[in-house]
């Protein structure tokens, strides 16, 4: 077996989770990752989210997980020979991953812009909170405060209105940024990739809110509401149930014995209707056992899952049968396996994480990477001026969020993406904007569909018909990549599994994105983002400690999309070298288990079960949300700021900005003391913030060097000056909807200067004639297909239920 990136060398100049996870994914793919550390080592070597002590000379379990298969080289920035060694490594590498946080990375010579200028053959991927340029480039931030700026804290209405909203815990933004960085490092042939964690969080923790507000003149949600049922207490433990569609809400009503709640004409959203009946729904759940609820809800096709955490998730039957978890090769604890599976195998088995400086001597003795010449330009790194995916044709058989978010990046970066729908089952995101069916072409007015599908072509095919399947097979022959996220049985029923695709197009790459996998007892379980979050452990850490966990309701889909994209990069590399096609199985839940992996490795290594702590967290103290003196834009006392003090120096800066108040004692100088007195500190900061506006708080603390943020309404983030400067949003016209701003990708690339939205999202069936003519059909044949209902340009019968999900 030859791993996809076996001839690919990466110099890792990053510190922390985002860069560590990025290079883990690349090392899993076979790349030689040379982790450059200062004499003190990456801070993750001494990190434990539970606070467990790391023995001298040992490493924390998260580092041991993320650093599998890497090499460690120590570079002392004060030693000339060490700097020379690093120059040699850079001259022979393919890519560099960089972030702030080490003395080496902070040297001017080894900053990302300087490296790009000095080593033109390299792809240089930089990961920072806000990006390398712009008015906020040098502002202090933590993952918690960037999440507040992103709109992701209020996001999709997380939490009840009588408490502060809650952030998505577990440093999720770092992992998401790492996954995007991994995909970009392989996709972009050379030059600077300037990735922003803020922009990543906007894409993954909010739901195209700016576009929604621009196009429809209203926010996607105007208040926070609990998701009902969400995570609920059954007779013998926690269980998660959800309704992602109107039909699922109707089925839930029937399951709990209240058919009279079903109202297909209601103007209320699913969430609003569920909240009305919450007390009775929770009562029903409390009277039944978890196992019985899961079995019954599966029979009703209602999304469901057990609620996983670091102690329980490894025993869930689906993961046991599929061998989802593996043993850490050095330290023996349990950790997640890779987030995708491929045939042929493109991943290598994990090798032990390196001890600090374990490979320094070996690299010092050769002062370069064997077989590489200074300043080389490989076929992979040749600059062409083309978009990264120019020339690729993609058959996109996906819907909703996970699959389309993956193929959307391909479309924005040059691929021809043909999005297949049917008139009987259009992409579900066309139908959830709450546009009345009385409006002309209402199905074309969803900003969510538009935000996920700019630059694509739309082909409608009824694959329930023999002729529709025949045309789909002909289309497969013309495509480099096939992406689908149907339930596994759909492709089996129409005879279009990977073996069939290979017979039609031997070099085709097929990306399958099932919820729980292509096999196992949960294979056919309905999979929406929230149940993926629930069973993987992501939900477990989110919420207030005295209440049940709160579903993020956002992470599961885009997280699956970006991991699918990363897997595609590996498959494209394999095809480039061998001409062979690849099957990828990128189950949503496997991607979720990877970004929630710290819970499992911490429990397995130390016996400590990580718990939720509201808006507090292990990386900063104090860290919390504080109410300002203002009402929010809806006239409610729900306006907040986020403050996170990550270092003792930042604490001193905060104290100075507050005017050195008398309540600050010597006990609070160091982080341990601040953790012991968090309640008191929170009370004082609550008093101070309550007398000031959000702008006043941010101006005071940011200028002093303290990480702070306004908790943004997600539909307002498009006006943030940093995002305006970086052009994260682009204005796109549309034949039916108003001009609106649409998000792009979370990185700026020096090799890409043109707008990324080259065309608006397609109308339903807009490209039927173009695509089918390309398959050799005549106008008469295409007309006959339309007459027979195989293709079309409007939802069949206009009878589709359009109950809002917001």
Automatic annotation (TrEMBL):
<dbReference type="InterPro" id="IPR044855">
    <property type="entry name" value="CoA-Trfase_III_dom3_sf"/>
</dbReference>
<dbReference type="InterPro" id="IPR023606">
    <property type="entry name" value="CoA-Trfase_III_dom_1_sf"/>
</dbReference>
<protein>
    <submittedName>
        <fullName>CoA-transferase</fullName>
    </submittedName>
</protein>
<dbReference type="Pfam" id="PF02515">
    <property type="entry name" value="CoA_transf_3"/>
</dbReference>
<keyword id="KW-0808">Transferase</keyword>
<dbReference type="InterPro" id="IPR003673">
    <property type="entry name" value="CoA-Trfase_fam_III"/>
</dbReference>
<feature type="region of interest" description="Disordered">
    <location>
        <begin position="327"/>
        <end position="356"/>
    </location>
</feature>
<dbReference type="GO" id="GO:0008410">
    <property type="term" value="F:CoA-transferase activity"/>
</dbReference>
<dbReference type="InterPro" id="IPR050483">
    <property type="entry name" value="CoA-transferase_III_domain"/>
</dbReference>
């Amino acid at each position: 077996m030859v791993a996809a990136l076996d001839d690919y060398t990466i110099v890792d100049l990053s510190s922390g989770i985002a860069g560590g996870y990025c290079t883990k994914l690349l090392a899993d793919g076979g790349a030689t990752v040379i982790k450059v550390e200062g004499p003190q080592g990456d801070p993750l070597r001494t990190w434990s989210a539970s606070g467990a002590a790391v023995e001298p000379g040992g490493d924390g379990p998260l580092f041991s997980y993320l650093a599998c298969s890497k090499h460690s080289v120590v570079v002392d920035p004060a030693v000339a020979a060490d700097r020379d060694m690093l120059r040699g490594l850079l001259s022979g590498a393919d890519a560099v991953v960089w972030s702030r946080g080490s003395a080496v990375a902070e040297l001017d010579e080894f900053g990302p812009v300087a490296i790009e200028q000095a080593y033109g053959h390299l792809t240089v991927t930089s990961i920072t909170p806000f990006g390398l340029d712009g008015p906020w480039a040098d502002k202090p931030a933590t993952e918690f405060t960037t999440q507040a700026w992103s709109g992701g804290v209020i996001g999709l209405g997380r939490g009840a209105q009588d408490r502060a909203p809650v952030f998505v815990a577990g440093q999720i933004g770092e992992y998401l940024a790492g996954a995007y960085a991994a995909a970009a490092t392989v996709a972009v042939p050379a030059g600077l990739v300037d990735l922003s964690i803020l922009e990543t969080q906007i894409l993954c923790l909010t739901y195209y809110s700016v576009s929604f507000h621009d196009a429809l003149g209203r926010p996607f949600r105007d208040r926070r509401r609990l998701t009902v049922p969400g995570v609920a207490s059954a007779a013998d433990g926690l269980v998660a149930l959800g309704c992602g569609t109107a039909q699922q809400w109707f089925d839930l009503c029937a399951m709990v014995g209240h058919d009279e709640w079903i109202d297909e004409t209601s103007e209320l959203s699913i969430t609003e209707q569920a909240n009305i009946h919450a007390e009775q729904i929770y009562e029903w759940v409390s009277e039944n056992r978890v196992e019985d609820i899961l079995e019954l809800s599966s029979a009703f096709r209602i999304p469901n899952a057990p609620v996983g955490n670091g102690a329980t998730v490894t025993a869930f039957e689906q993961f046991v049968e599929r061998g989802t978890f593996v043993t850490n090769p050095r330290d023996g604890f349990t950790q997640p396996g890779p987030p995708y599976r491929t045939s042929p195998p493109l991943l290598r088995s994990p090798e032990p994480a390196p001890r600090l400086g374990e490979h320094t001597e070996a690299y010092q003795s050769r002062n370069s990477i064997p077989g590489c010449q200074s300043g080389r330009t490989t076929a992979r790194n040749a600059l062409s001026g083309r978009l990264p995916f120019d020339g690729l044709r993609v058959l996109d058989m996906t819907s909703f969020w996970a699959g389309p978010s993956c193929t959307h990046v391909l479309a924005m970066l040059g691929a021809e993406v043909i999005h297949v729908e049917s008139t009987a089952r259009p992409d579900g995101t066309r139908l959830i904007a709450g546009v009345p069916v009385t409006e002309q072409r209402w199905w074309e007015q969803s900003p969510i569909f538009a935000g996920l599908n700019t630059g694509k072509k739309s082909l409608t095919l009824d694959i329930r018909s023999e002729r529709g399947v025949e045309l789909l097979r002909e289309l497969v022959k013309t495509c480099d990549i096939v992406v689908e996220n149907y339930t596994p049985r759909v492709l089996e029923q129409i005879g279009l599994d990977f073996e069939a695709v290979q017979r039609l197009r031997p070099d085709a790459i097929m990306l399958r994105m099932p919820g729980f996998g292509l096999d196992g007892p949960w294979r056919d379980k309905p999979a929406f983002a929230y149940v993926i979050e629930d069973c993987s452990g992501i939900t477990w850490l989110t919420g207030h400690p005295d209440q049940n966990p709160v579903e993020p309701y956002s992470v599961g889909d885009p997280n699956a999309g970006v991991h699918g994209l990363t897997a595609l990069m590996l498959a494209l590399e394999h095809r480039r070298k061998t001409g062979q096609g690849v099957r990828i199985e990128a189950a949503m839940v496997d991607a979720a288990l990877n970004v929630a992996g710290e819970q499992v490795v911490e429990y397995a290594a130390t016996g400590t079960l990580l718990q939720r702590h509201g808006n507090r967290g292990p990386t900063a103290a104090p860290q919390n949300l504080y109410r300002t003196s203002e009402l929010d834009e809806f006239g409610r006392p729900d306006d907040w700021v986020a403050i996170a003090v990550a270092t003792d120096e930042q604490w001193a800066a905060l104290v100075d900005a507050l005017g050195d108040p008398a309540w600050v004692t010597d006990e609070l100088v160091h982080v341990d003391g601040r953790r012991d007195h968090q309640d008191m500190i929170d009370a004082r900061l609550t008093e101070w913030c309550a007398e000031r506006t959000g702008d006043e708080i941010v101006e005071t603390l940011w200028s002093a060097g303290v990480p702070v943020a306004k908790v943004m309404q997600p539909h307002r983030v498009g006006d943030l000056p940093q995002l305006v400067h970086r052009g994260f949003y682009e204005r796109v016209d549309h034949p039916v909807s108003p001009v609106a701003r649409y998000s792009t990708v979370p990185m700026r690339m020096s090799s890409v200067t043109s707008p990324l939205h080259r065309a608006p999202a397609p109308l339903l069936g807009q490209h039927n004639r173009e695509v089918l003519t390309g398959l050799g059909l005549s106008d008469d044949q295409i007309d006959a297909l339309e007459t027979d209902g195989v293709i079309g340009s409007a939802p069949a019968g206009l009878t589709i239920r359009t109950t809002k999900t917001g």
